[in-house]
Amino acid sequence: MTGVESSTFVPRVESSSGRLAIPADLVQRIEHWSATYGLSREEGAELVLRGSVEPVEEAALTLRAAYEARDVQTPEQVSAGLSAAEVDVPVVGMRLGPRRPATETEPFTRDHLGADLLDDALEVWPAVRGLWRMSARPRVIVAYRLGYPLAVYRVAGWEQDPTTNRRWAPAGQILTDTRRLDASTGADSGEATAADHSIVRVVRSRPLVTPPAAANPIVWLHGR
């Protein structure tokens, strides 16, 4: 989860070209399995398929094992861990959906929204930097996909899109255990601080669980 070099994996996009009929008993089993571990039906089905249909995704296997072992954490537990590490900056999590093409005109250039479990921090940045309906307070963003922490970023501030009134980050830095890297280029931006290290350690320690019915993709993790 710390790689920053672009992947050669072919991105997946949503398709509406056909419908897949699934027997009712299998749907019920998916719903039960998903509800047991705090996932929506769609999330549970996606996770199981990504971890069982070739090419199997190791991240999906790891994530499913963590859910089934209850080796997960809530936003409240993340905040407690950051407080114990004396982190004093506002931290939010962004729950990203499936990777899909970007079609709307926006104040910055990107070719996709959402993310794959296989995406690295450079690939995730265009999707996680905005546009969001939120305050300008957060200084650390954690990108999540199905509860899996894909990447952690620091931002110096936010700009507001005059058309939508939503906010976007004009620049950011990827946080690793030891370094800060430019979120757009991957260039080394200097040594990580003790607070950076603590944030990365806490949020990457376990997947994040949130209520399946939660519609807001923004999850406050600390310093609200």
Element layout with pairings:
Blueprint: H1 24-36, H2 41-50, H3 58-68, H4 75-84, E1 91-96, E2 100-101, E3 112-113, H5 121-128, E4 130-132, E5 140-145, E6 148-154, E7 159-160, E8 167-168, E9 173-175, E10 179-182, E11 188-191, H6 194-205, E12 218-222
Parallel strand pairs: 1-5
Antiparallel strand pairs: 1-12, 2-3, 4-8, 5-6, 6-9, 7-8, 9-10, 10-11
Please, could you describe this protein's structure?
With 224 residues, this protein is an alpha+beta fold. It has six helices and twelve strands. The chain has helices at 24-36, 41-50, 58-68, 75-84, 121-128, 194-205; strands spanning 91-96, 100-101, 112-113, 130-132, 140-145, 148-154, 159-160, 167-168, 173-175, 179-182, 188-191, 218-222. The strands form three sheets. The chain has a seven-stranded mixed β-sheet with strand order 11-10-9-6-5-1-12, with helices on both faces. It has a three-stranded antiparallel β-sheet with strand order 4-8-7. The chain has a two-stranded antiparallel sheet with strand order 2-3. Strand 7 (159-160) and strand 8 form a beta hairpin. The longest helix has 13 residues, at 24-36. The radius of gyration is 17 Å and the shape is globular. The two termini are 26 Å apart.
> Please, what is the average pLDDT?
90
Give me the strand/helix succession.
HHHHEEEHEEEEEEEEHE
User: Approximately how much helix is present in the residues?
Assistant: 25-40%
Q: Over the alpha carbons, how many angstroms does the gyration radius reach?
A: 17 Å
DSSP summary: helix tally? 6
